[in-house]
């Protein structure tokens, strides 16, 4: 740790108390890691329904160039995965969703609400919407807090039915899971102290230590750029953490010089701590999607139908959630309209 670099003046969640809260959340996330190893049903292993379409999806993943377009057309039809979710009895009749619990405005517990704060945020709104469509009850959701590097294993192992957790659709992940159509557009950006001489994803990063979340697209992008000689010389990528918020804590403690993450997440972190800021423009274009198990074609199609309805709903849909949770944290340059989906052509 670089001595003397502990910065003061943290605002957003209440001065030094916010710093303690951020650290506490990081510890809590670590304690919750074993929780995701418990089975919750909904493994969605049954094949069936739209078999030709699934074959097309698999081929598309192998020939991937535009990953955000490699999804199935919307449908309201039921199928084996949805039937399995609905067959759960009693208190277990819930949609099991992997989420974040410490990404401000996306999936988090508001410390100012008092008591047992419920999860809330943009991703949480979407999860409730999907549960309402499938089970007829927006509150029929069991949330499981999952670290960044556990998102895909949690789906593959059947611990969750889906992950709604600022998860970028990319070609590598399409080999392991299925994705919905995109519901948000973003891109990788640099987050650093306002006092830093770092100006963006450029030569000012030379010799700097950067924090990323393990299993994130930020880490894979930086590693590839370093291998290809596109990253500034001497950048240290050794600091990786299970959850993205841990990177903000490392930055606050002066243990790293910068953080690289999705601009949408970085904007929320800058809102928590006004002594840091986004540096430069986004240097990638990425899309968030709902991740589900491969072969769960009926669930993918159903989620895509929900997304279309959510985008079209002017009263309580996508725009309403954006205005409530994200409009204040994202500047004009970063604001995102709901992406226009494109689906696989089926023969």
- The portion of residues assigned to helices is 25-40%
What's the helix count?
A: 11
Order of helices and strands: HHHEEEEHEHEHEEEEHEHEHEEEHH
- The secondary-structure class comes to alpha/beta
Gross geometry: globular
Beta fraction: 15-25%
Total number of beta strands: 15
Q: What radius of gyration results from the CA coordinates?
A: 20 Å
Q: Which blocks of ≥5 consecutive residues have pLDDT under 50?
A: 1-56
Oligomerization status of the protein chains: single chain
Instruction: State the strand order across the main sheet.
Output: 5-1-6-15-7
Largest sheet: 5 strands, mixed
Quick check: average pLDDT? 84
Distance between the termini: 58 Å
Tell me what you see in this structure.
The chain has 347 residues and is α/β, with parallel strands linked by helices. It has helices at 15-32, 51-62, 80-86, 122-135, 151-156, 171-174, 217-228, 244-252, 263-272, 297-312, 318-325, and strands at residues 95-99, 102-103, 107-109, 119-120, 141-145, 162-163, 177-179, 184-186, 188-193, 209-213, 236-241, 258-262, 276-279, 286-288, 291-293.
List keywords for this structure.
single chain; 347 residues; alpha/beta; 5-stranded mixed beta sheet; 33% helix; globular; disordered N terminus
In a nutshell, what does this entry contain?
With 347 residues, the protein is α/β, with parallel strands linked by helices.
Topology, please?
Elements (H helix, E strand, L loop, with lengths): L14 H18 L18 H12 L17 H7 L8 E5 L2 E2 L3 E3 L9 E2 L1 H14 L5 E5 L5 H6 L5 E2 L7 H4 L2 E3 L4 E3 L1 E6 L15 E5 L3 H12 L7 E6 L2 H9 L5 E5 H10 L3 E4 L6 E3 L2 E3 L3 H16 L5 H8 L22
Helix pairs in contact: 1-8, 4-10
């Amino acid at each position: 740790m670089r001595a003397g670099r502990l910065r003061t003046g943290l605002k957003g969640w209440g001065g030094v108390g916010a710093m303690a809260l951020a650290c506490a959340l990081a510890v809590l996330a670590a304690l919750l890691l074993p929780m995701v190893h418990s089975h919750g049903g909904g493994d969605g292993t049954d094949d069936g329904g739209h078999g030709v379409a699934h074959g097309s999806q698999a081929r598309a993943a192998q020939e991937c160039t535009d990953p955000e377009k490699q999804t199935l057309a919307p449908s309201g039809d039921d199928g084996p995965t949805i039937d399995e979710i609905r067959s759960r009895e009693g208190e277990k009749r819930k949609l099991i969703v992997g989420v974040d619990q410490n990404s401000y405005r996306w999936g988090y517990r508001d410390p100012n609400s008092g008591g047992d704060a419920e999860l809330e945020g943009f991703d949480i709104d979407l999860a409730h919407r999907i549960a309402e469509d499938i089970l007829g009850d927006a509150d029929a959701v069991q949330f499981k807090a999952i670290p960044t590097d556990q998102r895909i294993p949690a789906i593959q192992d059947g611990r969750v039915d889906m992950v709604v957790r600022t998860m970028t659709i990319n070609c590598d992940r399409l080999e392991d899971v299925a994705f919905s159509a995109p519901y948000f557009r973003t891109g990788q950006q640099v987050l650093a102290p306002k006092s830093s001489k770092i100006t963006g994803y450029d030569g000012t990063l030379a010799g700097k230590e950067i924090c990323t979340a393990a299993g994130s697209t930020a880490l894979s992008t930086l590693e590839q750029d370093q291998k290809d000689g596109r990253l500034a010389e001497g950048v240290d990528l050794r600091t990786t953490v299970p959850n993205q918020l841990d990177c903000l804590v490392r930055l606050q403690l002066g243990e790293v010089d910068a953080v690289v993450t999705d601009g949408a997440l970085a904007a929320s972190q800058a809102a928590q701590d006004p002594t840091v800021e986004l540096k430069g423009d986004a240097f990638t274009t990425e899309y968030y999607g709902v991740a589900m198990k491969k072969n769960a074609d009926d669930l993918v199609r159903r989620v895509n139908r929900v997304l279309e309805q959510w985008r079209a709903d002017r009263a309580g849909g996508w725009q309403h959630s954006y205005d409530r949770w994200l409009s204040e944290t994202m500047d004009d340059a970063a604001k995102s309209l709901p992406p226009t989906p494109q689906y696989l052509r089926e023969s």
